[in-house]
Amino acid sequence: MSKLSIQRFTLQKHKAFYVSIYTTMIPGIPYTFNQASMVTRITPFVRLSRKQNLWNEIIFHRNIQTSCRSASHLLRRKYDSISGQLQPQRQSFHSSPIFHATKDPYVVLGVSKGASAADIKKAYYGLAKKFHPDTCKEPDAKDKFAEAQSAYELLSDPQKKATWDQYGAAAFDQDSSPGGANMGGNPFGGAGPFGGAGPFGAGFRGAEFTGGINFEDLFRSFTGGTAGGRRQRGSQNPFEQEEVLIGESIEANVSISFVEAAKGTSKKITINPCITCKTCSGSGLKQGMKRSKCKHCEGTGTRLHFVSGGFQMASTCNMCGGQGMTIPKNGECRTCSGEGVVRHRKTIDVDIPAGVEDGMRLRVDGEGNSPITGTAFNSNSKSQPGDLYILINVATDPKFKRSGADVLYTATIPLTTALLGGEIKVPTLDGEVNVKVATGTSTGDKITLSGLGMKKIGERRSGNGNLRVEFKVSMPKYLSANQRTVVEMLADELGDRTARRIMNVGRNG
Hints:
InterPro entries: DnaJ, DnaJ_C, DnaJ_domain, HSP40/DnaJ_pept-bd, HSP_DnaJ_Cys-rich_dom, HSP_DnaJ_Cys-rich_dom_sf, J_dom_sf. Keywords: Chaperone, Metal-binding, Mitochondrion, Repeat, Transit peptide, Zinc, Zinc-finger. This is DnaJ homolog 1, mitochondrial. It is found in: Mitochondrion. 29% of the residues lie in helices and 20% in strands. It has helices at 3-23, 31-52, 57-84, 105-109, 117-130, 141-155, 158-167, 215-223, 258-263, 415-420, 481-494; strands spanning 204-205, 208-209, 244-246, 250-256, 265-271, 274-276, 292-293, 302-306, 312-316, 325-326, 341-343, 346-352, 361-364, 382-384, 388-394, 400-403, 406-414, 422-428, 431-437, 446-449, 467-474. Strands 16-17-21-20 form a 4-stranded mixed beta sheet. The chain has a 3-stranded mixed beta sheet with strand order 4-15-13. Strands 1-2 form a two-stranded antiparallel ribbon.
């Protein structure tokens, strides 16, 4: 599939996703009417985005939001104008109470009152995926989807959850608070499920819902646009995976010989990673101290920034790491100074496989730094240390060189062996072997000994490289009288008239 085809497919998928999100819960309007009209409204923008290649994530989802938000109001007027011709004019768009005495949010989501926030998110995500009107064909799918969504919005808000736990459904009846009699008993402060008088109303602010779902997080969860590193703190987005804090990786250098690189070896190395503070168990707090609400983000974990066009952009609070809670003044653990980690020197054994090359990096899982949890401590979060990367330095060898998995060796042979041929001993990584020298061998001639090289790493076919032997003929610089006589006689036998004669002058020429 071409890149353009992938973009078209993805864009159409995003369009359907936004339409389903914005049209499912508009009160008083049939779902099919919502979807058909909204698709008509959004399609021109989708085509324009594809034409102009508007694949900037933030720009794309903001403009989609604008189209959907304006479309929702037009949709309200359009449907009212049609339905007004068939039935009496509506006096109010207020919805009926979201929860009745029998609609216990814990029962709807299938969780207990002691369930953690992560368990509530997981339960809601499963129900939302199961009963989404676009995928579920059951007749009551829309109602179950709405119930799950409303239940999650209530339980994800600490104040509303506490109210329900204390007073039960009575606190959310039509004639009771906190929903208010004028707003139809909606516990979210508005007639719509997102807290506004319309389908989104005042509950829709820039890029996030009042129900605690950050729209940018929701968008990235469907498009795969997550950045590296740990996820944003304080978000109640049920579409995200479980939060895991991962520590930074560290590096160490190890020097080995050429033969150790060929055979593999084990080395002891000393490292100094950060480990979880045992005094505070990583919380960064003194014993008996508790965290306080972050003053910079008012406990939300995010900070809002206004951008051009009247939109808002949410970013993780850099003071609390997105947790909404900070360590109070003078409440830091003295051992780790509130970081949650301390340095610890230790020695470990590292197995270096055969065939490693100079400059290669080996990874040892879980031997890096533990994450700094003091500024972002969450009892529901999991943490794991980073990795240890070992940089291999292979020393040069006086006999061998290397080219990939092949070992190179230069064999020096006497002139007479080169002329007459013979047999020599050649060193290998496993000892010496006998190698035959052909008659008339010259400097630069090569032979290959299969399978006597380095072990191959990272290739589909395992095995070893080869030992490539290059011959170098040793020429004598000085000759004795007898040696010169013999060589001059050889020149005469070979018909060499250019060789200089000293001993057999009469035969020259």
